[in-house]
Amino acid sequence: MEYKRNIMITGGAGFIGNHVVRLFVTKYPEYHIINLDKLTYAGNLANLKDVENAPNYTFVKADICDFDKMMELFKTYQIDGVINLAAESHVDRSIKDPFTFAHTNVMGTLTLLQAAKLSWEASATGFEGKRYYQISTDEVYGALAFDGTLFTEDTKYLPHSPYSASKASADHFVRAFHDTYGMPTIITNCSNNYGPYQFPEKLIPLFINNIRHGKPLPVYGKGENVRDWLYVVDHARAIDLVFHEGKTADTYNIGGFNEWKNIDLIKVIIKTVDRLLGYEEGHSLKLITHVTDRKGHDLRYAIDSTKLKNELGWEPSLQFEEGIEKTVRWYLDNQAWMDHITSGAYQKYYEDMYKNR
C-alpha cells in the first residue's frame, strides 16, 4: 500500500511516545507510522498492544545514535516526517551519569538530523513536504521565581541539570540545521507530563504504587518546588496539531496552566488513592518522608501556552483534579501492568518476543 505520509516517531515505546504513536496510528490510517525505539529500561512495547497489529504500524528496534541504521530506515521507508521523542529524561539519573544523557540526547538528535538532511536533500522533492519535529522540555529555560512569571517562547535558555543541558544542546542543533541548511524543523517545549503508562520512577506513578504497598513517599526538601502539570493525552493532541499546522522554524510551548507545589500535589495523590482503595481519609499521610534535596533543584517551572492557543487553537481538555482521578484509577485498575514493570519482567518478555519476530 502506498501511504500519504511515512512518519518515524522515535521513542515511541516510552511514556509520551506511546500516546503519540497510538494517536497517529488510529487517527491517520493513510499514514505509515514507524515506531523506532531502543527499548531501554523505560521503553515497553506492552504500552502499544492495542495497535501493534495495525496495518499502518511498524516497530523497529534501533538506536538513534546509529547513523548507518538511520540512513537505512530513511531509505527503506521513504520517511518524510520525524517526531523525535527518544531521550533519556530522568534528572536524578542525569546527575549520576551525564555521559549517557549527552550521548543519547545530543548525539542522537544530531544523528537523526544529519540522516534526515542527507536523505531529504537527495530526494526528488528535497525538503518540500518534509518536517523534523523535536520534542523538548521546559527545563531548558532554567527556573522561575515565585512571582507569577511564566516561561514563554522568548525566554532565554539557562539549563541547570545535565538532563536539561543535553536537551538545550539538542534544541540548538535543531535550530542550527534550519538556519544553516534550510531544513524544515520545529520545536515544542512542554511541562511535566502525567497519565497512563508512565514509568514508575516518576513522581505520580511511583507514589501511587508506594501508597498501594505502604512504602515511604520520598519528598525532596520541604516539597515546595513548583511544577506545571500536563495530561499526556492533551500533550499528544498538541503534538499532532503542531506537526501538521505549526510554522516551520518556530517554537511552541505546551503547558497545562496547572501549577502545584510538590507537597500539595502529593497530598492530592494520597487523598485520591486512599479514597479509591477504601482507606480512611489521611491514612497514607504518614508515609511522607522528607529526604535531602536534589542537587541544583530548580524551584519553579511554569509554561505559558498562550501562543499555541492563539495561533493553533489548542488548550488542555482536563482540569487537574479530573486528570489525576483518571490517572490514579488507571494505575489501580492496571496493577498487573505496574507489577510487570516493577519486577522487570516486561523487559525479558518483550526481548524474547522481539527475537522471535
Structure, explained:
- With 357 residues, this protein is of the alpha/beta class.
- The chain has a domain at 5-197 and 231-257 and 298-318: Rossmann fold (3-Layer(aba) Sandwich).
- Helix content is 44%, strand content 17%.
- The protein is built from twelve helices and twelve strands.
- It has a seven-stranded parallel β-sheet, with helices on both faces. A three-stranded mixed β-sheet has the order 7-9-11. A two-stranded parallel ribbon has the order 8-12.
- It is globular.
- The mean pLDDT is 95.
Secondary-structure blueprint:
Blueprint (H helix, E strand, L loop, with lengths): L4 E6 L4 H13 L3 E7 L19 E5 L5 H11 L3 E4 L6 H6 L1 H24 L9 E7 L24 H20 L3 E6 L1 E3 L8 H11 L3 E4 L5 E6 H14 L5 E4 L4 E3 H16 L10 E4 L14 H7 L7 H14 L1 H9 L1 H11 L2
Parallel strand pairs: 1-2, 1-4, 2-3, 4-5, 5-6, 6-10, 7-9, 8-12
Antiparallel strand pairs: 9-11
Helix pairs in contact: 1-7, 2-4, 4-5, 6-8, 8-10
